[in-house]
Structures are given as structure tokens and as C-alpha cells.
Design brief:
The structure holds 2 protein chains of 2 kinds. Chain A is of the alpha+beta class. The model of chain A has no long low-confidence stretch (mean pLDDT 85). Chain A is elongated. Chain A folds into 2 domains: 196 residues, no CATH class; 146 residues, no CATH class. Chain A is built from 16 helices and 12 strands. Chain B is an alpha/beta fold. In chain B, the strands form 2 sheets. Chain B has a 6-stranded mixed beta sheet, with helices on both faces. Chain B has a single domain, classed as P-loop containing nucleotide triphosphate hydrolases (Rossmann fold, 3-Layer(aba) Sandwich). The chains are: A alpha+beta, B alpha/beta. At the A-B interface, helix 1 and helix 12 of A face helix 1, helix 2 and helix 3 of B.
Chain lengths: 411, 227
Amino acid sequence: MFKIALRNIFRNKRRSVLTGLSIAVAVMIAVYLWSLISGIMDDLFDNMIRLNYGHVRILNTDYVKRERLLPLEANIKDYQAVARLADADRNVTLTVGRIKFGVLLEYKGKNKPVFGTGIVPENESPISHLDQKIVEGRMIEMGKEEMNLGASLARELGLKLGDTLTVVTQTAYGSITAMNLKIVGIFSYGVQSMDKTTFFIPLDRAQKLLDLENSATEIFIFIKDKNKGPEVAKEIRAKLDLAYPGKYMAKAWQEQELLYFYMVIARNVYAGLYFLVLFLASFTILNTMFMSVLERTKEIGMMKALGMKNRQVMGIVMLEALLIGTIASFIGAIWGSGIAYYLATRGLDFTATFETMGTINFPISSVYHALFSWGIVFFGFCMGILFSVAAAVPPALRAAKMEPTESLKEI
Amino acid sequence: MSVVKMENAVKNYKVGKVEVPALRGLTLSIEKGEFTAIAGPSGSGKTTLLNLFGCLDKPTSGKVFIEEHDIITLNPDQLADVRNHHIGFIFQSFNLIPVLTAFENVEFPLVLLNELPAHRKTRVMEMLESVGIGDLAGRRPGEMSGGQQQRVAIARALVKHPDYVLADEPTANIDTKTGQEILDLMREMNQKHKTTFIFSTHDPKVMRFARRLIMIRDGQIESDERQ
């Protein structure tokens, strides 16, 4: 049977090659697209964890309800004492307090709404890698009225290293406040939401500016295994409820609705795309196998006359599709892995596009890197085979239903 | 002893909304070792008769017995088994599998019977030798003449030692001289292996060659003579 199936493939070489080619191209697209999207998603989640959420985040319960407004009055008082509660957990590796606030940045007549973040600079390095992202100057230091500014923002407002600008905002109590801050460093994350709309100042200066003595608006907690986020968050919540009933809460990154929303959308969109590409390609197999079966009506009739059973006839047709599908999927997987490897090492630079797109409020990098994994390649290969074989079912059923009398129909 | 027989077999075909009778209550028995020609003009019912004898189709009414099995009671898989074990086929246009060599074509029915490869090889080579094309075993149908292809088809029909061989106008697509050789070969096989042959034809020369000649007209037996 194998011999017949294999030789049937070579019967109409051009048709087999074209069919194989469409399967190969579909598998190639599926593999590199998945690698690329996985890479982008991993990068996005990594950025979200490092810059927006931490593994677990402690917040004031009121703050959670109005987070978009950055309500400074819903803060965490004596945040170090609260952080110590979390520190006691054996899974926790690091806790840092932050203050996130909105300001209207004004310089030489230009103004722009941006986000300021008060940080403890020496604690930031393992989290946001700010030290590595400084492209000019140095990191801010505690106790000094200075700032690190996003590169795109600096460019937009015409600011440069050494410039001093006045930040005007409201305190936690609603009164107007201002501070002169000197730009000592410019950072570039390659993430537009950071580079275009964010600056960092020392936490103690933020506390002073906003009248938040010894307070923070959020505490980022980092743990050993990020997958254990919900468990650790639960433990910390229990401790918080005991010490500060109803006041603070802890949320794991997996529990962030926005993040989860992105994940679900991304997964669904991609899964849809992935299967659509394979589905379209499988039509060529369907078409080819139908043509091949119809051309062989007499021959199939003869084989059935000689005693071949319906399932054996089906088997031959499916085997042909399996052979084409396997060879084509293998080639496609190799091509796809080549492109994925290239995209993983070189990346796709969309900086220019992002620059013109205005503000994007989630931390997606401007340079896309694919995630190269043999798992993705192997899955693509298997899916290619699966779709090829599945597409051969209707023609195989057609072949099985052919009447053996066809072979005698010429008297 | 009959190898295959039909009793009062009726076969109607539906053409659009009209029922067209192809066989009108035919009763016929073929004995072991017979060399039988079924002759008649186009549309007389030869093919229908062969289809029923070949277990390729079932009668509308009446019975067809093969080895005492009434084929009307068998499902498609069982019919395939009967064809596989008991019946050899020779077709007008040879109907060899084009992607297989002569050897592999003859081997095909034995593969369906799950015979062991070593056993298959001996049987196939013996059969190819006996039809006189042992040296063409490695050729594909496209590389052989019509006569040679029909020899392969005969070898394929006989290799499993069937109870009877159905040949559908076996000489129609080859020239007269080769046709004569094919008939001689069939006759030789009939005598050598005691294989029953039933073949359809409308060639008077072929009819004369048969030991038993059954003439059919309008789905009924017109004459049945042993020569």
C-alpha cells in the first residue's frame, strides 16, 4: 500500500510539488508567526511585570478602584512596615515602594501630560534595569532633586542633559505643588509608553513633592517563581487583612485584569490566524486529492474489484496525503525555524513606526524579537501533518464509496 | 458442481425516473473447469451478468450463489472478501496499476490476501513465467505492449488460484494476432490449472473458441450451447 501511495505522489509531480509547496509555506508562516508573536507577548508581559505590576503588587483598596486616576490620597502609609510583612514570606526576593503620579510637564511653552514615578534608585536595577537603560548621564540619587527622563520625551520637549525644569502638580491633599528637577540622565527602553511619557525621580523627593511623607502608592514584590504569583498574593493578602483589615490588598500579575485581557485577546487572535493559514492551505490538499481520486475512478474500481476493502482504499488516499503533508510540513518547519531564528537574533525594528503613532499606553517594545523554540517548530510540523491528513478525509471517503463496477463500464 | 449460479436474477437500473431492465429473470449455472463465452449485442446485459457473477453488484431480485453463499446477504466487506478469495478479473483495457511494475501488479491480489513476501515472490514469478513474460517483471504498464499488458492481467487474475476468472472482452483492445495468443493462453491456463473462465465478447471468432457459448439478448438467455 505504501508503495502505491508513494508512487502515486510522483504520478503528477508538478501537482504534488505545488500542493506540498502550499503546505510548506503555511507551516512556515505558522511557525515563524507563532515564534514572533510569542516573542512579542513574552516581551510585553515581561515589561508589564517589570514596569507596571511586579510579580505581586500591594495597593490601597481604594486605589484599586480608581487606579486610572492615580489617586494619591489612596496610598500606603508607612509603606516600609507594610513591605516588611511581605518580606517575611520565604518566596519573596525583593520589595520596593513606588509613587506613581501624573503631571503636566512644561518647558519653554510646550507642555505634555506625563507620568512621574518616585523610585528608590538602588532598588530599581534588578527590577526595571533602569541602570542599563540610561543612554546619557547617570541614574538619579536619593535626596537629590533630579530626574531621569525618557529619550523620546526629551526629544519632543527639546530637553537635554543638565537642563532643569519645574514640575507642577497636585499633592495628595489637592493643593498645588512644584519642584525644580535637574535632568541627570536620559533613558531609553525601546518601549514607547516608557520613553515617551515617563520620568523617574527619587522616592523621597516624590514624597516631599506630593506630601506623602513615608508613603508609597504601590509596593512591587518580586518572588522566586513568577508562576506562583497567585499563591504568594493570597498569603500576603491574609497577612494584610490581619494587620490592616480591609485597607490594603495584594494582586499577582496573573490577576491583573488588563494583562489577562491582553493575554486572552492575543492568544485568540493568534490561534485564529494560525489555524486560518493551515486551513486555507489544507484546501489545496483537499483539491489535489479530489482530482487525483476522480482521475483514478477506474483504477480504484479495479482495486475494489480485486478485493480491496473500503477502508484500504481510504487508507491509500490518506497515506498519500500523509506523505505529502509530512514532507511538506518538514520543509515548512525548517523554513519557518530559519526565519524565526533570524527574527529571534536580529529582531524587527518598528521604532520609526511607533514614533509616529502617538502614545501607546502599554509597554510594548519597538523592536520585536521572535521567541525561537523547537517546541513551536515541532508543533507547527505536527499541525501541518494533521491538517493535510484531515483535508484528505473527504476525498478518501469519496474514493471508498466508488463502485467496483466502474472498472467494467466500457462494454 | 457449479462454481457460480444465478436463479431467476432480475436487475433493473434507474435512468432518471425510468426503471430500465437489464436482466429479466435469468437462471444460469457455470460448472467447474468450463470455458464459457457470454455473447450478445450491446445492451443485451452481458456486463450486468458479469457484475453479478463478479460480486460487484447485487440483483434487484432473484439469487446469485457463489460457493453456496447468496451474495444478496453479504455486506460490502464480505463481498470484497469473496472477490478476493474466489474470483479473478481480466478487464478489456487491462486496468493495471500504472505506478506498479508487472511483478507488483501480479503481486497485488496476494498482498490483499496477506500472503508472506517470500511466498508471494515465488508465486508471482511462476505465474509471469507461465504467461510468457517472466523477463518483463520489472517493467511498468506504460513500457509494455497491449498484448503484454493483458498477459500481466491474466497472471494477476490467476496468481491467487481463483475458483473462476471473469474476463470482460479480453481481446477487444488488442490486434487480432495478439488476441488469438491471449485466447490460446487463457485456454492453456484453463486446461493446465483447471480454472473456470467466463468471458464476455461480441467477436464471432472468440465465440467459436469457447467450449460453452451463452447468447444473451434483451436480458434473457437466447441460447446456451456446449461445443
